[in-house]
Amino acid sequence: MVDACPLRKVTHYGLFGITDARADVQEKMSRTGAKGLLPEQCRAARGFLNWTQDCLAERAGVSRSTVRGFEGQRHVLHRTTEEQLVRVLEDAGICFLSAGKFGPGVRLRRSRPEVAKPEQPV
Question: How far apart are CA 32 and CA 29, in angstroms?
C-alpha cells in the first residue's frame, strides 16, 4: 500500500523527488540510536491529559509546529526540546513506560498533581 500523503523534499537546490517522510525519520532514529520519547507516546500522553497540541506546546515553551511535526513523524526532536516535553508531561502526571515485553507505553500516575485544564469554550 502506498502512503496517501508522501511529502516532497525541497532543498535550496530544488525538488529532489517524493519521499516518505516517516521512513526518513525512522531511519534517522535507528541510525542515531534515539530511544527517547516516541511520537506515539507523545500523542497518547496528550490524550490522557486531554491536551491539544497547542496546550502542550505552550506549556513546554515550544512551537505548535514542533509538536505537530514530531507527532506526525516528520522530524526528530532536539534533545533539549524532548527534555522539555517529557518534563511537562511528567509534571502533569504522565509516566513513560520502557519498551519491555510489550513495547513502550504511557500511563497516568494514581494520584495526579492538580493541573489546570485547558480552557473550554463557553
Answer: 5
Closest by CA to 54, choosing from 69, 73, 67, is 67
User: Dihedral, CA atoms, 36, 38, 41, 43, nearest 10 degrees?
Assistant: 130
Among candidates 61, 75, 60, which has minimal Cα distance to 24?
75
> pLDDT by residue for the chain (122 residues), tens digit each?
443 333 333 333 334 443 444 455 455 444 333 458 999 999 999 999 999 999 999 999 999 999 999 999 998 999 999 999 999 999 999 999 888 788 888 999 876 555 556 666 65
Domain ranges of the chain: 37-108
Assign domain 37-108 one CATH number from 3.40.50.720, 3.90.1150.180, 1.10.260.40, 3.40.190.80. Answer: 1.10.260.40
Continuous H helices in 8-116: 21-32, 39-49, 53-60, 64-71, 79-91
